[in-house]
Structure formats: C-alpha cells, structure tokens
Design goal:
416 residues; alpha/beta; TIM Barrel; Sulfite Reductase Hemoprotein, domain 1; 2 domains; 17 strands; binds iron/sulfur cluster; isoprene biosynthesis; 4Fe-4S; IspG_C
Length: 416
Amino acid sequence: MSMVQSAFPPRRNSVGVQVGSIRIGGGAPIVVQSMTNTDTEDEIATTVQVAQLARAGSELVRITVNTAEAARAVPGIRARLDDMGCQVPLIGDFHFNGHKLVTEYPGCARALAKYRINPGNVGHGKKRDEQFSILIEAACKYEKPVRIGVNWGSLDPELLARMMDENARSGDPRDASAVMYEALITSALQSAERAEEIGLGRDRIILSCKMSGVRDLITVYRALAARCDYALHLGLTEAGMGSKGIVASTAALSVLLLEGIGDTIRISLTPEPGGDRAREVVVAQEILQTTGLRAFVPLVAACPGCGRTTSTYFQELAESIQGYVREQMLVWREEYEGVENMTLAVMGCVVNGPGESKHANIGISLPGSGERPVAPVFVDGQKAVTLKGDNIAGEFRQIVDEYVQMKYPKKAVDAH
Ligand code: SF4
C-alpha cells in the first residue's frame, strides 16, 4: 500500500546577511520583523514602541528616518533601548532625502543596523543614481547591510515607462501586468548589481519586491527567487486591516514559505483605532509556527464551539490559556529548553474533546450542555486528572506550569 508522504521543497539557498546580532538567510531560521508607526522624531514614543515590538518577538524593528530631526533622534533611541537591555537591531527606512541624512548625521548611520532603500523613491532622473550611490557608499563605510526594497506603488517610473515602450514595440507584446512584474524584478536586480559595483558585498544585500495582490506577490517572488541567490524579505504591502490583512498576508506568504522562499517576513497590518501594533508580530510568528517553519510560543488548539456547548466558558478558557502561555513564555524562554514546541488543546465537549486533547501535550475537554460538569485533562495522551468546581482555569494553568517544569530541561545559567 502506498503511503501519503509529507513533502515540501527545501529552503532556497541564499547568501546569509548579518544584521546586528541577527542572521538573515544562509540557512538561518526565518526572521520576524516589524515597523513602528510612531513619529521617529519623538524619541521616547519610538523607543517605547520598538521595545514593545521586540518584547512581542520582533527580531528586527524598522523605523522611518524621514527628516533631519528623525535622523538626530536615532542615536538617542538606540541608546535608550540599550539602557533598557533591548538589543533589537534597528533598520532605517530611507526615501528621497536618505542620501543627505546618512551623510549629515553619521551618528544615525552608525546606530542603525541596516538601511532600507527603495530604488523608486531615491530621487528622479540623474539624481537617482547619484543619491542611490551615496546611500550604498554609506553602507560600505559603516559596514551595514541594506535591503533594496522595491514596492509596486513606488516603482521607478522611468524604468517602467521604458519597459512598457520596449514591450509595445516588440513583435509579441505581453500584457501590462507581466511587464510590471518584470519591471519590479529588474529594478531590484539592477539596483543590487549597482550596489555590488559600488563595493557592497552580496552578503550585505537583501531584496524585496512588495505588492498588495496575493497572486501578484507569489508570481513575482517565485521569479525573483529563481533568478538570484540574495536573501529575500517577504511581505504583502498594504495588506489592510483586521481579518482581511491577516488572511491576505497568510495566503501569500504561506505559499512562498512552503516553497522554501523567504528569509525574513513582515506583516503589514493596519491597526484598528487603538489597536495593538504588536499584533503584526504575533501574526508573523503564527504564520511561521502553523506552517511548521519555526516555533515561538505554545499554540492552543480549540474547537470552534457549536450547539453542543451552550457555555462560552470554554472560549474564555481557550483565550485565557493562549494569553497565559504567551505571557509566561517570556519567562519560560529564559529558563527552559523547547517549551515553544508544547501544544495545548481546549475542547468544548466530549464529541471530539478527548480525542483532540490526546494529540496535544496537555488537553482539556470541558463539559458540553447536558454533560456532567467535569473536565478531564489529558497529559501526553493519558488521562491525568478530572477537574471540577469553580477554579478549572486556575487548576489547568497550574497543570501547565508543572508540566513545563517537569518536561523541559533547564537552560544552563551563563556564569558571565
Ligand atoms: S468539540 Fe464538541 S463543542 Fe466543540 S465543536 Fe466539536 S461537538 Fe461542538
């Protein structure tokens, strides 16, 4: 009998790039990054948000460096983060005046761990090449990597017009979207080639070609990945708000990541008013974890609930357990090896509850409507205890704590 095999392509080989303490590409785990939405000139607000994003798990944080005051604030932001013990590398997002800012504010150029340059927003006409060169020369001088980040909303208009023209004159013109895909890739690859000519090593170049359509993004990255071995940053730009942004980003990135494409990701979610900016970090981690590419925090499987369970109790328990393990993970990560791989299940009734619970490291099956008010708990597939009464949530958390202490080896304490 033939058996079903789980087969996904291996990770694409890419040249590794060191960004501060973090390695991107070259076989390193896929890196999660995010971007602040504070005014970089506001040193305190930006420091606080960078620290929040880093605490949520962002391994790199990008800040816009758009004005002289913002460039002046960058070394202060770095120093404040260092004082807080937050080592997360900062990436500077540069646009039309980036060449001036890295020249006039060397403290900013030094404090950043990577520069993001958009070839479509460096300048126009002759100035474009000159200003791009200045940014790359700064990267060489300060030994920093760059991301050459092409974005379809700001694609170099001269390049696109030239390629559209050439296409129109060719005997067999292709449709406009094919020309645009080609223009995005050409912009990234030509800019990378130019950066190398100026003296930047391949191990200091990361590429991205962001688009907002799921199929567009997949098409472009497949082609880009096949044509070069630069490390690639993935992200669906302008993904949107709420579930739309999460679903679109997940749909696009999952396909590429499971094809072995992508070395670092960012999820460009628009926060709801008053929403948490760190949600984009959680979504990025969850994409990597649910696709089996990395583990960050124990995941809680929960049933959707149905008419068999009239109480919302199990939904609240699932939510509180997920929140609890995410919070506890900050401590567990320092103390125990491998807790991020733990799985938990919170199920609403006896129909699927015990079965699903048995597949998790720890599972609880709550009573459905009309069932006896007891909640069996399964540990490593075996029924361990049956909880009842008013403190099922508290007792379940205690079981989780004890399991972590018992199951995962203590990390060696660094004597220094
Ligand atoms: S486990 Fe029970 S409550 Fe949950 S969806 Fe299945 S039948 Fe409904």
